[in-house]
Amino acid sequence: MSELAWENIIKNQRDLREIKPRKSGCTMVMDVGLGLHETQSILQACANYIDHWKFGFGTSAFMDKSLLQEKLHTLAAHNILTFPGGTMLEVALLTQHCRVYMTHAKALGFTAVEISDGTLPIPRFRRKRIIECALNAGLIPITEVGKKDPKRQPTPEQMADEVLEDLEWGAAWVIIEGRESGHSVGVFDELGNVDEFEVDVIIGMIGDKSDSLIWEAPLKSQQAFFIEKFGANAGLGNIPIDQVLAVEALRNGLRFETLNRVTGKLLREGSWDPNEVESNGAINPPMTPNGTAS
Q1: Contact present, 194 and 183 (Cβ < 8 Å)
Q2: Cα gap 87→168, rounded to integer Å
Q3: How many other C-beta atoms are found inside a 10 Å radius of the C-beta of residue 184?
Q4: pLDDT digits (tens, 9 = 90+) for 56-98
Q5: CB 15 within 8 A of CB 38
Q6: Is residue 47 within 8 Å of residue 80, measured between CB atoms?
Q7: What tens digit of pLDDT does each residue of 171-209 get?
Q8: Distance between CA atoms of 135 and 289, rounded to whole angstroms?
Q9: pTM value?
């Protein structure tokens, strides 16, 4: 990685951030139709901060094959996992064998696949076989738990049970459904607020497997909640592509929502005195929570 513009001047104000390739703290973006040049522009600025690239719902079905393959090749060169949205698989299951879908996804250049039942009722035994199908095709299975219909939401206990089974069956990550809106699904209410009780139930049941979770959190308030609760390396998904650096700033305490708690702690501890004036540059700068000088 080349030198950052503010290297050694502006530092992470929170816990240490994992670097790529990373298992925890993944950022999954939602692509709903970027062209090749737009993709290259995003990667020029943000490639180090993107781990998973989802081609949202059924959008990749309308892309020219050669263009899609070139995009996938470009993303793979930046060590970014790529997969079509889970809705694509659900549609394919209506008319095709799972193996046909997986083989074609692999041939196109996808490196992973999202396995969901957000719309279709797919029995658990069949979900296990779909995960196996993905593995046999050489794709990384990323599953999703939860329903897209606000009236058909599973309990947090049910979601936790499904997370544990999916991981046991070979899923590399499990996404908690939040849709692209962040309202009335998963752990979000109709206003987009996070139900912390439901989050605690899920985490309490899956224990040390929580690093494999990706919380779909398209709204800033939701992103800040998970970062405050789980730290800089919370897995976050459905991030708008133009917000990748903004989310990374949240993770590192470089926005009000996550810097505010850090500064409050420093003030309470007396680690930083706003009345102290530096002489000849900063002398003995205070330490941030991750042990670096602020």
Answers
A1: no
A2: 23
A3: 16
A4: 989 999 999 999 999 999 999 999 999 999 989 999 999 878 9
A5: no
A6: yes
A7: 999 999 998 888 998 999 999 999 999 999 999 999 999
A8: 41
A9: 0.90
Q: Which residue has the tokens 């992470």?
A: 12
Contact 163, 131 (CB under 8 A): no
